[in-house]
Specification:
This protein has 360 residues and is α+β, with helices and mostly antiparallel strands. The protein is 40% helix and 24% strand. It has a 5-stranded mixed β-sheet with strand order 13-12-11-14-15, with helices on one face. The chain has a 4-stranded mixed β-sheet with strand order 4-1-7-8, with helices on one face. Strand 14 and strand 15 (341-344) form a beta hairpin. Helix 3 (122-132) runs antiparallel to helix 4 and helix 4 packs across helix 12. The protein starts with a helix and ends with a helix. The model is unreliable at 1-19 (pLDDT under 50).
Length: 360
Amino acid sequence: MKNRLAGLLAILCLGGIPALAQTTTVQANIKGLKDKQLVLYYKPVGQASKADTIQVKDGAFTWRGKLEEPAKLNLMFSRRMFSFYAESGKIKLTGLADSLDKLKVTGSKIQDESKAYERSLSQFSEQENALYDNYGKVSKEEQLALEQKLEALREKKREKAKEYIATHPDSYFSAMMVMERASGYGPDYDQVSALFSLLSNKKQNSKTGKAILDQLQIVKRSNIGEELRDFAQQDTSGNTINLSAFRGKYVLVDFWASWCGPCRAENPNVLKAYNDYKDKNFTVVGISIDDKKERWIKAIIEDKMPWTQLSDLKGSKNEVSAYYGIVGIPSNFLVDPSGKILARNLRGEILQAKLKELLN
């Protein structure tokens, strides 16, 4: 009996028996919320994303789910999404239907940690909001300075995150911050790797930690200096085009879609870059995340985009964007004549400044 007990303890210590998913219960009471169905989106660590339908009655609803490790829950109302961190146990959600962004969450220590961290960034957020008030309303020179100031503020936020993770290495919130950086918009492999190294061994070896490592393998594919893998997709006429056909030129590989408002707003800037530098060994290759050919072609015509446009018309499952883990558009890679990535996610006047530096 003692030997069996010792053996079981050894298995547990070595992680031979997986942790059991614990029940998370969310009880909501939102005054003024009409009877309707809501959708809750979430991704249990190590699993595919899930979407649960919730029935609201008299402003109240209850949701129960199994979470082996903490996760972010995203409640989709008719015109607004409210996100919060959840863990096992009972969580209460209260507030008013006319101020969904101010819903109060109690019972989740990780959400409390998240709110406290968010408050520590308030000075940067306020500065960002002030800059965005003038975004696109100033001269080109002022716009470039504005965009550079915004990037400087983002860098300060990244430094703040690094400091927090370093001082809270065993926090699930820290681990989830690293995961969100790894799977977010334009992650930098070296930066995310450095953040991961700050986590405790326990968190590195958790399911969340292992998911971060998996995501880092995808992030590395688009790291500065990496060679962009050759790919082939069809143009609007059905011809198969390989990226390698553009080797020898500077290429802006531009991910966009007809339904993406920010993409359509950025297209005139990309058009200007194309017209200014098309005779200086530069071109653009568009990769559309569309799934409807008619809408794709219509947008190309409307936005007057003369460069090569490619798509496999698989929507969010586009094979090129999926390979590079692109989760937000517009997004782009600037590739040098040898096929290596020089820069990523150049937009607005920052794109113009980079091309001027390289090609003038």
